[in-house]
Amino acid sequence: MYLLHRLRALGMTVQAFEAGTDIGGTWYWNRYPGARFDSESWSYGYSFSQELLQEWDWKEHFSPQPDTLEYLNLVADKFDLRRDIQFSSTVTAAHWDDDTDTWTVTLESGEQARSRFLFTAVGILSAHTLPAIPDRDSFRGPAYHPARWPKTPVDFNGKRVGVIGTGATAIQAIPEIAKQAEHLTVFQRRPNWAAPLHNSKISKEEMAEIKTRYDEIYARCRESPSWFIHRADPRKTSDVPPEEREAFWEKLYAEPGFGIWMGNFRDILVDEKANAAVTEFIAKKIRQRVKDPKVADKLIPKDHGFGTRRVPLESGYFEAYNRDNVLLIDLNETPIDRITPAGVKTSDREHEFDILVYATGFDGVTGAFDRIDIRGPGGVRLKDVWADGPRTYLGWQPEGFPNLLMVLGPHTARGNIPRAAEHGVECLTGLLEFMRARGYARVETRPEEVAAWTETVVKAAAPLLSSKVDSWQTGVNRNVEGRTVRRVLGYNGNGAYYRRKCDEVAAGGFQEFLFR
Ligand code: NA7
Q: What region, left, alpha or beta, does residue 362 occupy, with left being phi > 0 and alpha being psi -120 to 50 degrees?
């Protein structure tokens, strides 16, 4: 939406295509109970318009999905965006024509559109994936993926519900479903480390005070490694005596947001020993919160340390397992054989349900690109070029695909998504402005610059413990054919370095690109 706004300001003719029936993206699709931010709301909104910042009041520190969708609707109306967005329009193909230097985009309906430039703003977690379980579609009751949740709320009252998956989505949804359902069974393949969100309402007075601090808040995000307000403690874990460490972790665990992950000692995500220490602290917290020690033990991850996968922030997740109506099934003990008309058949028995929830995640980062047949000069497919991992310059442009520009493409520095997206839009529209001023009609990457940036990205990932763990962030998704090998999908070094680098490229006249 911001890209559309900025491109219009440059005087470009823009046509946006959107698969949904309305605006909102992630916040349009993910309507499941419990869906909300884990970034502080006031660090998550658009920062480009002072008027908008002053007009909108966040109601909670971590905004729930309905409020966020309302916010995005306000933005769409305020900047009159809808008139250039064609809804219910899934893009299936985008082909480059080298003779005319244009892209032709094809929609599911067969309709086509031609343009000089093609921007992707497809999100990093939009290609949802259903579980590759035999007879998946045989279930006779409704089965939902949270990213395709119905617009009318699902009534769980008096229902027997099965949830497959225990990622961030399930961790938000489970406590809410547990409150309503007659019985809830959770099928867990691998547990995730989760920490409390500590959400709260924002009073009118507090919101008025936040509005006076927006400049400071956004400056803080800009200077932080991943665009969040949280910044690592400069000390190493071993610099701090055990009792003091414990007190620090207790403090972080009691505070809202990602402090426990990103405001922790600076070595917990790179040093095995430091990571093991904080991991033990979080495991102890789970044992304290879950009454049945056997259930607690199942909820404690054994195959990766705290923070090495994206940390879901939860509101009563562990306490949900203290309820009489919630059952945790460990799929390592009793794997799923298949889905049946009545429910889920595990190796030992059949579990019967009225509703199934497949909270089984996404084909992260490159998945949404793979679902479009993107072809560059000579009919080369982007999917093939990226088979072993993306190759881009700064995540702005893939190698060998002229005039294809990506907002939040692979190999950008991400984190707090709207902050990174706004930055991406500003970088790319800066490039376009530069081209227009010089009459250039075509831009592509220089191969040597792509090689250098790809190496930078790969090197930055090497010291991180997260690089050794399977997750959507390392591109592993066993429900998608071929997605079993880890890839580096983002620039995971210091975001401040990335932003400096982008600024330098612009200041230097975009010499890293080839223009015509
Ligand atoms: P995630 O974090 O990728 O979680 C998906 C979950 O689904 C995870 O627990 C998977 O277990 C589980 N899963 C996937 N396929 C299966 C099958 N076939 N059988 C059993 N369990 C399965 O996705 P989310 O939607 O929760 O969160 C994505 C991001 O959204 C999150 O990080 C935030 O940034 C927002 P596995 O771990 O693969 O064993």
A: beta
Q: Is ligand 1 within 6 A of the CB of residue 167?
A: yes
Q: How far is the CA of 30 from the centre of ligand 1 (A)?
A: 14
Cα angle 404, 405, 407; round to 5: 145
Q: Tokens representing 348?
A: 């030992």
Spatial contact of 143 and 355, defined as CB atoms under 8 Å apart: yes
Length of the chain: 516
Ligand 1, pocket-test mutation among 169, 192, 310, most atoms within 8 A of CB: 169
- How far is the C-alpha of 121 from the C-alpha of 7, rounded, in Å? 13
Joined together, the tokens standing for residue 21 give 């029936």
Residue (of 115, 27, 32, 108) closest to 71 by Cα position:
27
Query: Ligand 1 atom closest to Cα of 168?
Result: 26
Q: Which two tokens stand for residue 313?
A: 């922030």
Measured between alpha carbons, how far is residue 486 from residues 187, 357, 359, 458, 483 in Å? 24, 27, 21, 12, 8
Coil, strand or helix: which one is 53?
Answer: helix
Mean pLDDT by 10 residues, the chain (516 residues): 98 98 98 97 98 98 98 98 98 98 98 98 98 98 98 97 98 98 98 98 98 97 94 97 98 98 98 98 98 98 98 98 98 98 98 98 98 98 95 97 98 96 98 98 98 97 97 97 95 94 98 98
Pairing state between β 404-406 and 326-330: unpaired
Pocket test for ligand 1, best of 126, 189, 471, 479 (most atoms within 8 A of CB): 189
Say which amino acid occupies 267. Answer: D
Q: What is the per-residue DSSP string for 33-49?
A: TT-B-SS-HHHHS--S-
Using a 10 angstrom Cβ sphere, with 0-12 exposed, 13-18 middle and 19 or more buried, the burial of residue 379 is exposed
**Phi and psi (nearest 5°) for 270?**
-125, -20
Question: Which three-class secondary structure string do you get for 427-467?
Answer: HHHHHHHHHHHHCCCCEEECHHHHHHHHHHHHHHHCCCHHH
Dist. CA 278–CA 23, nearest whole Å: 40
Question: Ligand 1 in contact with 27 (CB < 6 A)?
Answer: no
Q: What is the greatest pairwise CA distance in the chain?
A: 69
Q: What are phi and psi for residue 56, nearest 5 degrees?
A: -95, 135
Determine the distance separating the centroid of ligand 1 and the alpha carbon of 256, expressed in angstroms. Answer: 23
pTM of the full predicted structure?
0.97
Q: How far apart are CA 457 and CA 460, in angstroms?
A: 5
**Among the atoms of ligand 1, which is closest to the Cα of residue 361?**
23
pLDDT score of 438? 98
